[in-house]
Amino acid sequence: MLSETEGLADLGLWQDAWDALEALPAEERATPAALRVRLRCCPGVGAWEIGEHLAGVLCDGKDSDRESAAGFYHALAVFHARAGRVEGARDSITAAASAWPDIRAAMLDDPALEGSLFGEKGQQDDRDFRC
After folding, report:
1. Which residues have CB under 8 Å from 28's CB, separation 6+?
2. Exposed, middle or buried, 51 (CB in 10 Å: 0-12/13-18/19+)?
3. How much is the pLDDT for 7?
4. What is the pTM of this model?
5. Where are the alpha helices (DSSP H) in the chain?
6. Distance from the Cα of residue 69 to its chain's centroid
7. How far apart are CA 66 and CA 70, in angstroms?
8. What is the pLDDT of residues 78-120, one digit of tens each?
9. C-beta separation of 73 from 87 below 8 A
């Protein structure tokens, strides 16, 4: 059943994937794999606060968990940047890099995060944001 939710998420059917996750037994919904799928759905259904909580939980997990958390934080940074919330975007960038340092290249290449968010060619400030 979890593979069905992953397939729905892969197709960008965020609400359908979310609903399919809700239909799973509670113990299956709490697995890291299910949490990763739910986290992928959060931006698509506008569940930013839930996503922040899930990312905070997953960033202490295995590599796949931390990579998923970083992907969410990247999406959150874009969300904040597009809304003109530079401080929120910077905090999300820092959280993403803390969770999964390899995501820095993708964020540097993201046109939505250019300009004042990074300062001089990708140089972040020295915040100590930890998951």
Report:
1. 1, 2, 34
2. buried
3. 97
4. 0.88
5. 2-10, 14-22, 26-29, 32-45, 48-58, 63-82, 86-99, 104-108
6. 5
7. 6
8. 999 999 999 999 999 999 999 999 999 999 999 999 864 655 4
9. no
